[in-house]
UniProtKB/TrEMBL annotation:
PROSITE patterns according to UniProt: PUA, SUI1
Top-level taxonomy: Eukaryota, Viridiplantae, Streptophyta, Embryophyta, Tracheophyta
Record-linked InterPro entries: EIF2D, eIF2D_SUI1, PUA-like_sf, PUA_eIF2d-like, SUI1, SUI1_dom_sf, SWIB_eIF2D, SWIB_MDM2_dom_sf
Region (Disordered) location: 135-171
Domain of life: Eukaryota
Native species: Panicum virgatum (Blackwell switchgrass)
Official protein name in the record: SUI1 domain-containing protein
Every SUI1 domain range: 441-514
Length: 529
């Protein structure tokens, strides 16, 4: 029921079997849906985009803490891992990147090593975990941005422990092993006792008071943190990054306890009143904030509260972080003729651009439709003629045999290799999609005439930066001479030349101020040769 990862017993973690007996032993991230569980129980780490954001935001956590993973509507955890960053770092990163390094999951070798190999409820299948049909949550909401289902500890325990009836011998063994190892677990501190007074205070609020508080937080956010350049903005981003930070200290803001019940309905009511303009993205099933009516009577009559702020350095860092969030770089994929039969078989749009996750979901839908999971090894997929041709036709050397099966963890990446790669760069409302993989920004310092240094910067166009504007900005920042020139043989592509060896400072400026990911910046210092 307890395992360690370093063979020395220094860091102990509960298995999923232990968590099925004691569901609240670890704090848990809840996935956006059961379909995401395919990747977790397939061995992938948990990414922030796959996590449902609770209405009150994430509880505070530090890097390296043990957390569990759950599926909405199912109280039984499916995996155990450790956080890769703190909650503060996660918010600064815009809730992107890896949230949890998975150490153990349902159907891995550790789970398989147990004699019983039982499952806790009817929501657990061989390659996916979905909601438990016998588990009823009175406060479940379909809006992922409005948090995960609220359940009592008693109801979760009852739902999970229903397996004891079928396996009576497991309970005694589980209780004994958990008792022996539980005190050695390094768990995050439970702050529920400290938060209890605030929670009780919030529970006394009437529906009208909660509605009033919601409106006040929205107006505060519209005044203080939401700029026109941030629009359009998904409702979930508005809620987690702007509405929740405007709460009074110690107050829990729960949309489900308002008269609107759902975030989408609340935003649509504000749109109907004319304060904002919003519409539902039918593809993403989410309401998008499109505009703000700053001449609305409610907006003009509102007086924003002045928050106590740290010194100017903190204000600057917050401002810079908001600029950083403006730039988003993503590789996207378009179906090619190779994979067309797969996409058409599941009625997927051939003209659409897909993220890696979305494309992988298409091929797994095909596998499920054609029942291609290998009966004797659920981690592998049998290749029928259509799927084999889509993945390998024309790529196998002449005379070599075509494979007859593929591991699930390789299926998605193999499909992506057969699709047309594109890249999408977004800065505020400006978005550009170009064919091919994104090119990196190159910064090179070299010597000119004697001991003078010159720094050359190219590849800006991919990241929606204007060379002339940047040159003017760098001239002031580094107090030096700058100029722009068209790259030889590359029409429409320019480089910025900066006097002096500012290679490191320039790279840092692009990351901090423009939000260019470090992996897309290449630095060459020819002066050290």
């Amino acid at each position: 029921m307890i395992f360690n990862i370093d063979a020395r017993g220094h860091d102990l973690f509960p298995t999923v079997y232990a968590l099925w007996k004691v569901p609240h032993l670890l704090p848990a991230f809840t996935l956006k849906g059961g379909e995401v569980s395919r990747y977790v129980i397939g061995g992938a780490d948990l990414m922030f985009p796959g996590i449902s954001i609770p209405p009150e935001g994430f509880h505070s956590f530090e890097a390296g803490q043990p957390w569990a993973v759950k599926v909405p509507g199912n109280p039984a955890p499916i995996a155990v891992g450790i956080t890769t960053m703190s909650s503060t770092e996660a918010l600064k990163a815009g809730l992107r990147g890896k949230a949890l390094r998975i150490l153990h999951y349902y159907r891995d070798m550790l789970w398989d090593s147990a004699d019983a190999r039982y499952v806790p409820n009817e929501g657990f299948f061989e390659d996916i975990v979905v909601e438990d049909p016998n588990f009823v949550s009175t406060s479940q909401s379909p809006d992922s941005a409005e948090g995960t289902p609220e359940v009592t500890h008693e109801s979760e325990d009852a739902a999970v422990d229903s397996s004891d009836t079928a396996d009576p011998g497991i309970h005694n063994e589980a209780t004994e092993e958990i008792t022996d190892g539980i005190n050695e677990l390094k768990l995050p501190e439970d702050k529920s006792a400290e938060q209890a007074p605030d929670e009780k205070e919030h529970q006394t609020l009437t529906t009208e008071e909660i509605d009033s508080l919601l409106d006040k937080c929205l107006l505060q956010a519209l005044y203080t943190s939401i700029k026109e350049k941030d629009l359009p903005m998904p409702g979930s981003t508005l809620w987690s990054n702007h509405i929740l930070p405007c709460r009074p200290p110690g107050v829990t803001l729960d949309i489900k306890k308002s008269s609107h019940k759902k975030l989408s309905q609340w935003l649509q009511s504000k749109s109907s009143s004319g304060l904002i303009s919003a519409k539902e993205d039918k593809y993403k099933k989410e309401v998008i904030l499109l505009g703000i009516n700053r001449k609305h009577p409610d907006y003009m009559a509102f007086k924003p509260e002045k928050r106590v702020q740290e010194p100017v350095e903190q204000e600057k860092s917050v401002a810079e972080s908001s600029v950083t969030k403006q730039l988003e770089v993503a590789e996207i994929y378009k179906p090619s003729s190779h994979v067309k039969p797969i996409f058409m078989a599941v009625e997927a749009d051939m003209e659409k651009y897909y993220s890696a996750l979305e494309a992988s979901d298409v091929v797994f839908r095909y596998v499920e439709k054609e029942n291609l999971v290998k009966p004797t090894d659920k981690a592998k997929v049998i290749l029928d003629v259509t799927l084999c041709d889509a993945l390998y036709k024309g790529a196998i050397k002449k005379g070599s045999a075509y494979p007859t099966e593929i591991h699930k963890k390789d299926l998605g990446s193999t499909l992506l290799n057969r699709m047309q790669v594109h890249h999408k760069v977004t800065r505020g409302t400006q978005e550009v999609i170009r064919k091919g993989a994104i090119r990196t920004i190159q910064i090179m310092t070299e010597r000119r005439q004697g001991n003078k240094k010159m720094t050359r910067l190219s590849g800006l166009e991919c990241f929606l930066m204007d060379p002339d504007s940047l040159a003017s900005e760098l001239q002031k920042k580094f107090a030096c001479s700058t100029t722009t020139a068209e790259l030889p043989g590359k029409k429409g592509q320019y480089e910025v030349l900066v006097q002096g060896g500012v290679i490191d400072d320039l790279a840092k400026h692009l990351v901090d101020h423009y939000g260019v990911p470090k992996r897309y910046i290449e630095v060459y210092d020819k002066t050290k040769r």
